[in-house]
Amino acid sequence: GDSGGPLVMENGDSWIQVGIVSFGFQCGAEDYPGVYTRVSAYMRWISRILSEYQYIV
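That's the Peptidase S1 domain-containing protein sequence above. Prediction below.
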């Protein structure tokens, strides 16, 4: 399925990831909203973890 995939939005001439797919019913169907995790809520943790690794591309 799509779980774990990115939710992105256009930001000028680039795209930024704003969410991560959690789950949903009837993917993309009217009256069945998808459920996402907000990436910004975890940015401090993500930055801390990434700073511990020298070779992440």
